[in-house]
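Thread title: Can someone regenerate the structure for this chain?

I was given the following input by a collaborator and told the matching structure tokens would be attached. They weren't. Posting the sequence so someone can regenerate them.
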Amino acid sequence: MTPLVRRSLLAFGLLLGLASLRPAAAQSDPVAAANAGTVGVVSGGVNGTYVRIAADLAAVLDDGDRLRVLPIISKGSVQNVADILFLRGVDIGIVQSDVLAYVRQQRLFPGVDQAVQYITKLYEEEVHVLARKDIGRLEDLSGQTVNVDGKGSGSAMTASVLFGALGIRPTLANDDQDVALEKLKRGEIAAMVYVVGKPASLFSRIDAPAGLHFLSIPLAPALAETYLPSRLDHAQYPALIAEGAPVDTVAVGAVMAVYGWQPGSDRYRKVARFTDAFFDNFQQFLKPPRHPKWREVNLAAQIPGWRRFPEAQEWLQRHDASRMAQAPQGTKPNAP
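Best answer:
Regenerated them for you:
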């Protein structure tokens, strides 16, 4: 065989090999495939519960093929609503249940009631007010500097509602919570407000000699329409709360919110796939090492003033919704 014939045969074989690959390449668009299965979940700050819940979603639901969950750090509930409405790549957000009422009141996003829906109510988040030892009551914060996290955060929103309802007028600061904690330790501010599911990892950095304590928030009539009663205790914060001396506080619900995509659209189908996977695998969230707040979730709980994402409603109808309304054994159910 001459060298020319040999080269011709090799070239022909190479062409045959490339031709055999073309159909597979033509049928597979890696960019489209990656985006079709990816859901962006905007959560919260690095020290909060939201980001841990989003990380749990990724750990349980990622299957490496049809569904991938991307947790996204954010600045809080109001910003999360804006991201759900406007930011490319964000399909789902974890927000406080009072955020829709707040954005309607402030007229921030016209039409938000139609555009934002919910997949499920999650759990209750407690309002933590950590103060210097010389601050004995919430009323003592009038005229004092109190950090409420960044503007647009859930903590800032709740602090505005809470202080307004109780007639308390502090000077509000908007440092990140970890910065605020250091300022509080140095006595540069009087207190900090942090809405987060207990136990908050941020407060694990505090030891007994720090001289800080949680302020009690009784469920006054002005708060009863918006918040639920709750408590912080020694088991969650042993360095801050004495055994047998729990601190009263209030709580607000956390919500898995979603943009109201048109049924039948590609984005709707993607979020519907996530929703089905979440409900189908919910029992996995109740096992260690998932966050203990999952054990408070009642999938069938309704949220006044919100519309449920259609696929979530259909899943509940296909299954025994009354059974789903029962909280896992040993936990309290959320009020609908």
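The radius of gyration is 25 Å.
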